[in-house]
Amino acid sequence: MTIMQGRSTVRQSPLQPGDPAPDFVLPAVDRDGTVSLADYRGKTPVLLAPMRGLYCAFCRRYIAQMGFTRQKLRALGVEVLAIVATTPERARLYYRFRPAGVPLAADPDLTTLRAYGVPHRALTPEVSQIFASRLSDLAHELKIPATDINEIQSALCRRDGYEPTQTDEEDLQRHGGQFVGQFLVDRGGIVRWINIEGAAEGEAGVGKFPSDDELLAAARASLGLGPSERS
Fold this sequence. Notes:
By secondary structure, this protein is α+β, with helices and mostly antiparallel strands. About 35% of the residues lie in helices and about 15% in strands. Strand 2 (about 25) and strand 3 form a beta hairpin. Helix 4 packs across helix 5 (about 150-160). The model is unreliable at about 1-10 (pLDDT under 50).
């Protein structure tokens, strides 16, 4: 996998609206071949959603939701690309049986998240506790009758048809406390809107993703679209 555009592959702060989006070439998960930001340039705006690995219950859930989100954004002329931080082989195996309904790319080394400046923290006990607390909130939201974090994780895995592997455990240890974000890039390759996990709400925002209404509003405002206007 490569990141191009002649810039450092690791940014110290997130890209901002008006910045050029670093290009990338990644293995596709939902088809053969590769996918790149250049595939969209000059054709359509794209919402990029780089995620953590399959080990992340929040990300598995959001990728599933994005299949529905994509249909709404496409009505505005906006495409969606989700990027999962696991190996292409592992991602293809999981999504072969649970099709996502959204184009997917694999980035096991988090190169895209780093190039786009999404924050990363060491997986300290404090960071682990933040994620555990948010998993408890998710279990409550989904009415999962479990309080122990291990029980919650097992219940979420069963719900998603997900069986952790050694690859997933290695990804978790390598990635540490990686946060995620969403970037709306116009057809010229310029970032027009961003959302960074936890940036607005702090710890309470960990594991939260923009709603469809928020994404649609961002697309209309950032791309100069009226309430019912297509790109």
